[in-house]
Amino acid sequence: MTSRERVSKILNYAEADRVAVDFSGHRSSGIAVQAYKKLREYLGLEQSELFVYDLIQQLAIVEDDVLEIFGVDVVQLGYNFYKKPEFWKEWRLHDGTAVKIPSSVNISVMPSGDYEIKTPSGEQMGIQKKDCLYFEQTLFPYMEDRNDRFDDIEEQFQRIQWVGVECPPNQYSIEQQGVEAKALRASTEKAIYGMFGGNLLELGQQAMRMDVFLMELAGNPDRIERFLDKLFEMHMKNLEQYLTHIGPHIDVIGVSDDLGMQDGPQISPAMFGRVFKPRYAKMWRLIKQKAPHLKICMHNCGSIYALLPSLIDAGLDAVNPVQTTCVDMEPEKLKRNFDGKITFWGGGCDTREVLPNGTPEQVQENVKHNIEVFAPNGGFVFQQVHNILADVPPENIVAMFEAVKKYGSY
């Protein structure tokens, strides 16, 4: 069974030969560059150049040799851009480690020693403090701008670091991305994950700042509806192009919106159903109409148990990262109530406590338990809960994937 066949079968709620594995197949199943460097050393691999493809989260491109060692079944569209030197430039992390970063990023060192990312016009939109591992957003275009028409939304969104800082393959035009997707499909039997996005709540928070957007959502809903209408219009235009050029060559389309907190959704199920669900449903219906072979996987952090019925009803096929330490997100509860209704793309190993702080034996026990709960009847793709952070010991990463091999057979 090829990786592509394995992932397809599991996404259709059937057992394959073994559990499918995702490691760095999208921007929330990856690994911080510091941890990746240590992992390659621990595995005895030749130390290669380090490509930080997601500068904000400091995520490294995981190369083919590591993917094969761990039996990974999924690659993201753009992962092989480390083979294209024209898209990279030299940079150094705060600890002095030499890396490559996307050449399109406008980055510089401040007098304080902090790093800043700027818009093309020179505005700071993100900062990485000397003692911080990640970039923080500093520019929120609509936070004080009382523009109620939002006619300049596409221009303003380029001033948001999460939009304006490109990750492979977005350096290409949409047409050329399609050419790259076709070539990648011909070169691999792995399932290909294409990250579209389509965020609504999250982009509102990035445009206005989280507190402002949530207050406006509750106290000035007409303005937020106008904003979401413009945002939705932009997404639908981009989605049409994405499905035309890229859709035929990928297996999974990634959408995203962090709706959860540690103890429940950010907004009530009623507000979600009134404001957000209809827009998701229209986007996802377009996907099913234009590319019926695609499965829709939504990145959605936190406790989203109360929203899962609405997300499923809107057309969602899979959800990640399945944050099992949040309220109501226990593996047993999720599997009992949603078995055969949605694929759990994640929840394979706890990254909050077990993976960074446990022993290799504790890591393996956690993986064993989660596989035993999630894997029966398909509907489960193994990935750790969100990205592997910089301080995770390499022996624990290896123990995690060894446990998948040991306990993941059907």
Commentary on this structure:
The chain has 410 residues and is of the alpha/beta class. It has a single domain (3-29, 63-79, 142-407), classed as TIM Barrel, CATH 3.20.20. 39% of the residues lie in helices and 15% in strands. The chain is built from 15 helices and 16 strands. An eight-stranded parallel beta sheet has the order 1-16-15-14-13-12-11-4, sandwiched between helices. The longest helix has 25 residues, at 221-245. The mean pLDDT is 97.
What labels describe this entry?
TIM Barrel, single chain, 8-stranded parallel sheet
**Care to count the β-strands?**
16
End-to-end CA span: 13 Å
Helix content: 25-40%
Q: How many domains would you count in the coordinates?
A: 1
What is the CATH C-level name? Alpha Beta
Could you give a short description of this structure?
The protein has 410 residues and is an alpha/beta fold. The chain is built from 15 helices and 16 strands.
Q: Topology of this structure?
A:
Elements: H1 3-11, E1 20-21, H2 33-42, E2 52-54, E3 59-60, H3 64-69, E4 74-76, E5 88-92, E6 98-102, E7 107-109, E8 115-118, E9 124-128, E10 136-137, H4 153-157, H5 161-164, H6 174-187, E11 191-197, H7 201-208, H8 210-219, H9 221-245, E12 252-256, H10 269-290, E13 295-299, H11 308-314, E14 318-320, H12 331-338, E15 343-345, H13 354-357, H14 360-374, E16 380-382, H15 394-407
Parallel strand pairs: 1-16, 4-11, 11-12, 12-13, 13-14, 14-15, 15-16
Antiparallel strand pairs: 2-3, 5-6, 7-8, 8-9, 9-10
